[in-house]
Design goal:
304 residues, mainly beta, 2 helices
């Protein structure tokens, strides 16, 4: 088997671009795995979210019952950045949501469907991430990897200032993050820490200005690789902060949430792989108490 084909069976990295409506509480195992230069990934995802799925706990809605389907497509490319391995990616979602609950104590329900906010991510491996061509990458011994990333969410999604529930957030969001990945034979462990910074939404319920303080995100992952491209990981995430205010008046909605989940990666055919992830909130102070199920189908190839 040629080296370039063996490369596909040796590593399969599933791009962590399964956007959820509660985008700040995603769980992303293997987000800082090493990649060869010239690797390309094309992914299609489907996510199902049920429960209290609200990005805005300051809304006057209680007893939320939501069922949200999210369809998305993404692309990631690995390249050489001053001798270090880097990757850049983009993900675009479409969401269909049915949400019910009590609005100002009165029962109500709505249906929303439309394009979601575009997500972009740039990642660079600082330690253990020397830029290697596929042939050299195949020969490397897995080692500790330390990387950093910046994720940007652009306000491209459907938004109506007169609606309580929207697909898009009508604001920019940026998350710088640092992550450490440690292999140990067939086992691997990862830890990451980042913080979301949010722009203001100047059209909140009309012409009100809604602001949100930074939201800290911490993730822990541990997994086992049974054979090349077949692995499983347990995931835990912690989220704190994110207080909101409207026209300068603060809301009592500081988040102190946590989630747990499991992720399974399975090879399919040459160049093809699938990933199934499931997660659930287990400590929720404000918003985000939902179940999530995500399926990602991915095709990867190398530059000629």
């Amino acid at each position: 088997m040629p080296a370039r084909e063996r490369t596909f069976t040796w590593w399969i990295w599933l791009a962590p671009w399964a956007l959820t409506v509660a985008h700040a509480q995603e769980l992303e195992p293997r987000a800082y795995s090493a990649l060869p230069v010239g690797a390309n990934f094309l992914a299609a995802t489907y996510s199902l979210l049920t429960g209290d799925v609200l990005t805005d706990p300051s809304l006057p809605i209680s007893d939320v019952r939501a069922r949200i389907s999210i369809y998305g497509a993404g692309y990631v490319r690995a390249f050489d950045l001053f001798g270090r391995t880097a990757s850049i990616g983009i993900f675009m979602p479409f969401a269909s949501a049915d949400v019910g609950g009590n609005v100002f104590d009165a029962p109500n329900s709505v249906h929303r469907a439309g394009i979601g906010d575009t997500r972009m991510r740039l990642a660079v491996n600082f330690l253990g991430g020397s830029a290697l061509k596929p042939a050299d990458f195949l020969k490397r011994t897995p080692a500790t990897t330390l990387g950093g990333s910046v994720t940007v969410i652009a306000p491209t999604g459907q938004f109506n200032a007169n609606h309580l529930i929207n697909i898009g957030a009508n604001r920019w969001a940026v998350k710088p993050e640092i992550g450490l990945s440690q292999p140990l034979r067939n086992w691997f462990a990862e830890v990451s820490a980042g913080v979301w910074f949010f722009g203001d939404n100047p059209d909140f319920l009309g012409s009100n200005r809604r602001s949100q303080s930074p939201l800290w995100v911490f993730q822990l992952h541990a997994g086992y690789q049974f054979r090349p491209a077949l692995w499983i990981a347990t995931d835990v995430g912690f989220y704190t902060g994110g207080n909101t205010s409207v026209n300068g008046i603060a809301n009592a909605d500081r988040q102190q949430n946590s989630r747990y989940g499991i992720t399974l990666s399975v090879p399919m055919a040459a160049g093809w792989s699938a990933k199934l992830g499931a997660s659930k909130g287990f400590m929720t102070r404000a918003g985000g108490d939902y179940k999530a199920l995500t399926l990602t189908l991915q095709y990867q190839w190398l530059d000629p």
